[in-house]
Specification:
This protein is mainly alpha-helical. The chain contains 9 helices and no strands. The longest helix has 26 residues, at 57-82.
C-alpha cells in the first residue's frame, strides 16, 4: 500500500508545476524521493517489532549508526554535484539501508518472514525516485509514464495483498 501511494505521488508530481513558481520547479522531481523516506522508515518500525519484543535493541542502534554513516558519506559525495537531488538520494538510500538492517535483525532474533519481494520493490522505488531526483526528466509526461508503469508493477506484485485489503472495505451503513 505504501508503494502504491508513492507511485501515485510520483504520477501527480508534474502537476505541481502548475501551482509552483519557476524557481521551485526542482521540487517536483524531489517529491517522490522525499516521500519515500518516511514511508520506508514507517515500514521499518513495523518490521523491527520482533527485536523489540526480544529486547535485542542494541543491534538496532547499530543499524541507526550505520545508516547515519552512509548518509553523511553519500551527502559529502552527492550534494556538491547534485544539490538537493543528491541530499534526497543520500537520505533515501540511508533509510532503505536502515529498513533492511532493522528488518534482518528482527528476522534473525525473532522469526523469519518473507522479505525478498519487499526488498526488490523498495529497491526499484528507490532507483526510480532517486533517478528522477538526480536527473529530472524534462517532460512531465515521461515522469507520469514511468510512475504509471511502476504502479502497474506494484499492483501486480502485491495483487493478493491489495485484493485482501479491498475485500475488507465495506460500504458504510446509514445511521438511524
Amino acid at each position: 500500500l505504501a508503494l502504491t501511494f508513492l507511485c501515485i505521488v510520483g504520477m501527480g508530481s508534474p502537476a505541481l508545476r502548475v501551482v509552483l513558481l519557476d524557481s521551485y520547479a526542482e521540487v517536483v522531481s524531489l517529491l517522490p524521493a522525499a516521500v519515500l523516506q518516511p514511508l520506508v522508515y514507517t515500514l521499518s518500525e513495523i518490521t523491527v517489532v520482533g527485536s523489540t519484543l526480544k529486547r535485542k535493541t542494541g543491534a538496532v542502534l547499530g543499524a541507526f549508526v550505520a545508516a547515519i554513516i552512509v548518509n553523511v558519506g553519500l551527502c559529502v559525495f552527492l550534494v556538491p554535484h547534485f544539490g538537493a537531488g543528491g541530499a534526497m538520494t543520500a537520505g533515501a538510500v540511508s533509510f532503505l539501508l536502515l529498513f533492511a538492517l532493522r528488518t534482518e535483525i528482527s528476522a534473525l532474533v525473532w522469526m523469519s518472514f518473507p522479505r525478498a519481494r519487499t526488498y526488490v520493490s523498495l529497491m526499484a522505488a528507490l532507483l526510480l525516485s532517486t533517478t528522477v531526483a538526480l536527473i529530472p526528466p524534462a517532460d512531465g509526461l515521461l515522469t507520469i509514464a514511468l510512475w504509471s508503469l511502476a504502479l502497474i508493477a506494484v499492483m501486480t506484485a502485491f495483487r493478493h495483498e491489495l485484493r485482501g485489503l479491498a475485500s475488507n472495505i465495506r460500504p458504510a451503513t446509514a445511521v438511524q
